[in-house]
Amino acid sequence: MKTATLIDLLKRRSQPVRAGDAPLTHAAADLLLPLIAGWQRTGDEIHKTYSFANYHDTIAFVNALAFVAHREDHHPELEVSYNRVRVRFSTHDVKGLSENDFICAAKVETLISPLWTDATP
What we know:
By secondary structure, the protein is of the alpha+beta class.
């Protein structure tokens, strides 16, 4: 993947992967990771914990994230508590990370901060 910016990730859509497809190398994953602020890689997954003021805001985020995951057909592992959500992406079919994990993590970020802006007048 020749992604240069966060916007490049946001413009992409998750693509179907099959068992046996090769995962991203750790080196390739480490090149993509800085594009999505606050996310970390641990082994074969990327993850981030989001904090909220209250339960209502937490669940609103989870519902919005569920919509993104459904649209991309790529679903994270979620750990939900009163005011916190830990989101973990990994592609089980490839037993590691795929481009889809980074695409979806970037789109999850747009739920929190206004990353996607149209610079054209």
